[in-house]
Amino acid sequence: SPHLLGIKDLDAESIDLIVKTAKEFKEVLNRPIKKVPSLRDVTIANVFFENSTRTRLSFELAEKRLSADTINFSASGSSVKKGETLLDTVNNILAMKVDMIVMRHASPGAPHYLSKHIKANIINAGDGTHEHPTQALLDTFSLREKLGDLAGKKIAIIGDILHSRVALSNIYALKKQGAEVRLCGPSTLIPKYIQSLGVQVSHDVKDTLAWCDAANVLRIQLERQQIKYFPSLREYAQFFGITRKMLDELPKEIVLMHPGPINRGVELSSDAADSPHSIILDQVENGVAVRMAVLYLLASKA
Ligand code: CP
């Protein structure tokens, strides 16, 4: 069965096809009747071993708009708490005649492992610090709405790159589309290996904002930090936090993005997050259309 495990193995043509299909679904979502019958005979399980607000609700809504039957599983409150394994859990869900699995898991590679042992389609909804492909696709969609073709565009990814699956998936997606990518953050939060992916690195947020056409700002992921990293949240906000004033004073308008959840007052001040520079809620809106496109295209290849 075809899967969407990451952006790494997706080619530029597939990204274009997903964006084109998502555009059509976005038009559907703006009509009074938002539902289409495309996945009427498909059953999808949203299997979440890690917390989520946007991704989970967005997938569920995308599935419902496509007329699929959906069931939702959270590890908390399930028999995972009694020691049931990942594979047993998913095989039991599939025994109920489920066709597709949308899975979020804290372990990098968990959906790849699953794909070797089960027959259903798998969509990775975030695997630890590894990839979050549908986030990168909705970020691409949102960027293209604002900037057009991304070839030659300057895109900054600012924040906790080390712990971010959103950063890695976005780097792959942006490079495949010919964008220039610059990572910005404290050196402790930018892993050395990532420079081999052909990205620039900066530790100067003001310079990076002046350089870019769009800034994708990421959360400091304290929950993934095993040891106490520099900087503290207060230090991060002081040296890397982005305020509305900084955006207003730039020589040209830039697009401000954030995948959510925002740590208000840390990576973004509230007045920056809620400013006209921000397309943060447009990203969330576009997420439903992009996930409809991914589900539709995968189901049609099954
Ligand atoms: N952007 C994102 O993945 O948000 P959630 O963790 O709330 O799904």
Automatic annotation (TrEMBL):
Residues 152-298 form the Aspartate/ornithine carbamoyltransferase Asp/Orn-binding domain. Keywords: Pyrimidine biosynthesis, Transferase. Residues 3-145 form the Aspartate/ornithine carbamoyltransferase carbamoyl-P binding domain. One of its GO terms (biological process) is amino acid metabolic process. This is Aspartate carbamoyltransferase. SUPFAM superfamilies: Aspartate/ornithine carbamoyltransferase. One of its GO terms (cellular component) is cytosol. InterPro entries: Asp/Orn_carbamoyltranf_P-bd (IPR006132), Asp/Orn_carbamoylTrfase (IPR006130), Asp/Orn_carbamoylTrfase_sf (IPR036901), Asp_carbamoyltransf (IPR002082), Asp_carbamoyltransf_Asp/Orn-bd (IPR006131). Belongs to the aspartate/ornithine carbamoyltransferase superfamily. ATCase family. Carbamoyl phosphate binds at residues 54-55, 104, 132, 135, 260-261. Its EC number is 2.1.3.2. Heterododecamer (2C3:3R2) of six catalytic PyrB chains organized as two trimers (C3), and six regulatory PyrI chains organized as three dimers (R2). It catalyses: carbamoyl phosphate + L-aspartate = N-carbamoyl-L-aspartate + phosphate + H(+). The keyword Protease does not apply. PROSITE patterns: CARBAMOYLTRANSFERASE. Pathway: Pyrimidine metabolism; UMP biosynthesis via de novo pathway; (S)-dihydroorotate from bicarbonate: step 2/3. It comes from Aquirufa rosea. HAMAP family: Asp_carb_tr (MF_00001). GO terms for molecular function: amino acid binding; aspartate carbamoyltransferase activity. Catalyzes the condensation of carbamoyl phosphate and aspartate to form carbamoyl aspartate and inorganic phosphate, the committed step in the de novo pyrimidine nucleotide biosynthesis pathway. L-aspartate binds at residues 82, 165, 219.
